[in-house]
Specification:
By secondary structure, the chain is of the alpha+beta class. It has a single domain, classed as 3-Layer(aba) Sandwich (SMI1/KNR4-like). Helices cover about 30% and strands about 20% of the residues. The strands form 2 sheets. It has a 6-stranded antiparallel β-sheet. A two-stranded antiparallel sheet has the order 7-8. β3 and β4 form a beta hairpin. α2 (about 15-25) packs parallel to α4. The protein is globular and about 45 Å long. It starts with a helix and ends with a strand. The mean pLDDT is about 90.
Length: about 170
């Protein structure tokens, strides 16, 4: 599938200094796959991921993390394993994309078998939904497969507008 207008909406790769600054601000080391993602795509200006998610730049991720940490001061306990849904924000949740509204796509860095999984966090309700993907590599691999084959990733399948913009349809 070709979506040249969407390709122009992807930001240049983030620098290693950008990612390290995000790690310092977040107070933790980020997974290699997030380093790799930002080294190839420094964020976006248009929804390029399923559910209409727009990728954050590292600085945007930190900004969102600070906002949600301020708004949702308490959340799941650290001893609850990664991937456990529940109410409240946790400091080990790292937002990597936004739908521009109520939800962020979040990497769960709590310990456990699902460490690094991705889920939607609803800011209105302060709820972490069950994981949608085991990790960023699973999401990006699914996106690549869907774009190459026209198949689905979860409930979504890719299409393009007349102007060459990628959209994800249910």
């Amino acid at each position: 599938m070709r979506a040249p207008a969407t390709a122009r909406e992807l930001l240049p790769p983030a620098t290693e200094a950008d990612v390290r600054a995000a790690e310092r601000a977040l107070g933790r080391r980020l997974p290699k796959e997030l380093h790799d993602w930002w080294a190839s795509c420094g964020g976006g200006l248009h929804p390029v991921l399923p559910h209409g998610y727009i990728p954050y730049r590292p600085v945007g991720s930190v900004s969102a993390w600070r906002e949600w940490s301020r708004r949702h001061a308490t959340g799941p306990q650290a001893d609850v394993p990664a991937g456990s849904p529940g109410a409240g924000w946790h400091p080990w949740f790292v937002p990597i994309a936004t739908d521009g509204g109520d939800h962020d796509l979040v990497v769960d860095l709590r310990p456990g078998p699902l460490h690094g999984c991705l889920f939607a966090f609803s800011h209105t309700w302060g709820v972490a939904h069950p994981p949608e993907w085991e990790g960023l590599a699973a999401l990006l691999g699914g996106v690549a497969d869907a774009l190459e084959t026209g198949g689905r990733i979860g409930r979504y399948h890719p299409a393009t507008t007349r102007g060459g913009m990628l959209i994800w349809k249910l």
